[in-house]
Design a protein that fits this description.
heterodimer; B: Rossmann fold; 40% helix; AAA+_ATPase (chain B); ABC_transporter-like_CS (chain B); transport (chain B)
Chain lengths: 248, 261
């Protein structure tokens, strides 16, 4: 337990000590909220769908989370390049503990980032419908953070340097985000695309978050919860296995 | 304590370690000497579970690093040749992280961290971020960290590289003390041959991935008819300057270059 704690604490200290990164990564969600929120707002309203900021808010919170989460996971590459990874790898701790410690650390950072985006959304005009459901929203924030930190980490165990990062950005993070229902309602997509989108864990994350914050979960909160929990466990399991194969 | 039989490591074309065998007994201070690129670090990586061998057998404290990684990892401590500190943490936090990872009980941990940071003269800098340290300070911290837990076997890969004689003496007397009091087996590499002559009771010399000779420093001197171990070393390995073998990092760069061709 203390091993997982010290791994977690390290990630948090690093996050806290690079506050410029913390603030910098809030710029993108803010831009999306302002540009998309106010830009598409009137059209959305005219289409009879109601307030677009209310729809967009949970999507942008999810966006803030996944960018931070995947990046926290991928930070493992820096540990490899700066040599610190060796220190962890030779230690007599199970690879599962390493994976859990790192994932919890990165996920905590991502969840904090998600909460900050939530406050930014409040400023822009987003209003959660029920305070009673806020703990549930927090559960989804944490689950999304876990899934994507674990994903970033398990990818990083297979990469030797940052060169693959643009590929990951363009062919993984962007599709995950745009095909998650974060920006647009799901009902507009053709059935085959929608079927494909259902393979995207973030779809369930956005849906659950939207369900908890403004009601109207498309797939059902229980489904969302179950899918995210299972996927995060699967990613952690795969990540632990990959960790056991890392060579320096 | 360490048993190596016909160990081989091949990277695509290069054979870094070419069929070596040796034994390190409990309580030995074993110097593993060789010119740059001889295969020392590669061997240490295989002994410490960081790299899997292409062939041959290794037993570390009776366990195989390939299949019983956990048991092997419980048996040793290591000071790496290149940096393995977290720059974004303070000196003290780096020490604490290591102590917790190796399950050193809190009271002992705190006491050893203080003692060791004082030995390497970093106690008054303990709350500074490592990224503000000079190369020598990082090296000293690295060694201090490796000594927080007291393993059965201690691997030291060029531990004293770039340190002044005073610090080297302090560190070696601490290590010798550990070796005598807790009969910790020490396996180390160094380019300071006189250091090996002074502290080691067993020496193996490796060159081009093969072990040329092994024995006590006295035996090697007698064998070559030289007065010092350094002269014996030069007589055995010749005077040609070696190119550095690609380490993990360089292998990565090489691979990348090939990939981008």
């Amino acid at each position: 337990m203390s091993i997982i704690y010290i791994l977690w604490l390290r990630q948090l200290k690093r996050y806290w000590r690079s506050r410029s990164r913390l603030l910098g990564s809030l710029g993108q969600p803010l831009l999306f909220l302002v540009a998309m929120g106010f830009g598409f707002g009137p059209i959305y309203q005219k289409a009879g769908e109601g307030n677009y900021i209310q729809f967009l808010g949970p999507g942008i919170i999810a966006m803030g989370i996944i960018f931070t989460a995947i990046f926290s996971g991928i930070e493992l590459i820096w540990d490899r390049q700066f040599g610190f990874l060796k220190e962890t790898l030779v230690a007599p701790v199970s690879r599962f503990q390493i994976m859990i410690g790192r994932t919890l650390g990165g996920a905590t950072v991502a969840a904090l980032q998600g909460i900050l985006v939530f406050f930014i959304a409040l400023v822009v005009g987003f209003r959660p419908v029920s305070l009673a459901l806020m703990p549930l929203a927090l559960v989804f924030v944490i689950l999304i953070s876990m899934v994507f930190t674990a994903l970033g980490t398990l990818l990083a165990t297979k990469l030797s340097d940052m060169h693959a990062f643009p590929i990951i950005m363009n062919f993984l993070i962007m599709p995950i985000f745009f095909l998650s229902g974060a920006l647009f309602p799901l009902k507009g997509f053709p059935a085959p695309v929608l079927a494909l989108m259902k393979l995207n864990p973030l779809l369930y994350g956005v849906d659950g978050l939207r369900g908890a914050l403004v009601s109207g979960a498309h797939l059902g909160l229980l489904t969302d919860f179950a899918v995210l929990s299972i996927v995060s466990l699967v990613f952690i399991a795969i990540g632990s296995y990959f960790f056991s194969k890392v060579e320096i | 304590m360490i048993q190596v039989n016909n160990l081989i490591k091949k990277y695509k074309e290069i054979t870094a370690v070419d069929d070596i065998s040796f034994e390190v007994k409990k309580g030995d201070i074993f110097a593993f000497l060789g010119p740059n690129g001889a295969g020392k670090t590669t061997t240490i990586k295989m002994l410490t579970t960081l790299l899997s061998p292409t062939g041959g057998q290794i037993l570390v404290n009776g366990h195989d690093p390939k299949t019983e990684q956990d048991a092997v990892r419980h048996s040793f401590g290591i000071v790496f040749q290149d940096q393995s500190l977290d720059d974004e943490l303070t000196a003290w936090e780096n020490m604490e992280f290591h102590g917790v990872l190796y399950r050193v009980p809190k009271a002992i941990r705190r006491q050893r961290i203080e003692e060791l940071l004082k030995i390497v003269e970093l106690w008054d800098r303990k709350d500074d971020l490592v990224k503000h340290f000079s190369g020598g300070m990082k090296r000293r911290l690295e060694i201090a960290r490796g000594l927080i837990h007291h393993p059965l076997i201690l691997f030291l890969d060029e531990p004293t590289l770039g340190l002044d004689p005073q610090t080297r003496n302090h560190i070696w007397s601490h290590i010798k003390n550990l070796n005598e009091k807790e009969s910790i087996t020490v396996f180390f590499t160094t380019h300071y041959i006189e250091e090996a002559e002074r502290v080691a009771n067993q020496v193996a010399i490796i060159d081009h991935g093969k072990i040329i000779t092994q024995g006590t420093p006295q035996e090697l001197k007698t064998k070559t008819g030289k007065a010092s171990l350094e002269d014996a070393f030069l007589a055995l390995t010749g005077n040609i300057i070696r190119t550095q073998e690609p380490d993990g990092m360089e292998m990565m760069r090489l691979n990348r270059r090939q990939w981008h061709k």
